[in-house]
Amino acid sequence: MKHLPLSEKISKLSTFLPILKKHFFTVPFLVIFNTFTVLILGGLSLYAKLNNQGDGVERLFSDPFNSWFPYEGLFTGISEVLWSIPVAICAFTFGVLRQKEPRSRSAIFLFFSAVLLGVFFLDDRFRMTLILFQLGISKKLIYLCYGSGVFLYVINFWRYIKTTPYLPLVAAFLLFAISRLEDIIDSQSLGVHAMLEDGTKLLALLNLAMYFWHVCHQAIWQNLQQREEP
After folding, report:
1. Measured between alpha carbons, how far is 216 from 167 in angstroms, rounded to an integer?
2. pTM (2 decimals)?
3. CB 179 within 8 A of CB 196
4. What is the pLDDT of residues 164-220, one digit of tens each?
5. CA-to-CA distance for 80 and 103, rounded, in angstroms?
6. Residue 66 and residue 72 in contact, taking contact as beta carbons nearer than 8 Å
């Protein structure tokens, strides 16, 4: 195969770049998120270079893996995956529904569901409660704020929730309450503590993911049927 001359390569590249740019800018948030991520990574790289902190940056990308106990953190990883499912599908379904009926009850319900679950996910993933506790803020106060948020959520959307198969949602909130209560009590038995705090949370997340998967599936299906009607 013959190699193309440099001038022809440059010509083909100059033709390809506008096409790439056009496709890239078709989805606006791609530009925002990619730019934001590049700025963060670039800033970290510059900081590491100037302060000789390359090992510190490397730790941000290190894998939490223990070769002696490869199963370590298995259920924690599964919990994090389950956390992301309802947040993602609620946000996605809200984006679909708002195209036609931005103020529909189902769209508003899914928007606030995504926000509430997103806050809980960030708290669980980045240990925000633990950080605030280390700063002197009581866990009881933090959980009271979260409980108040859940209470307002249920009060505002109870009529809509009643139209859905809400048993998994109720079960999830009860299991979350048991998990947080065990965190405050802090049982002396490690096995019991793990099952009552993390085991109940895993079961709660499973119910939560199944509930919102069903609700979002039904909402999108109804939206498609309405669009097909003459």
Report:
1. 16
2. 0.83
3. yes
4. 999 999 999 999 988 888 766 766 666 777 888 889 999 999 999 999 999 999 999
5. 31
6. yes
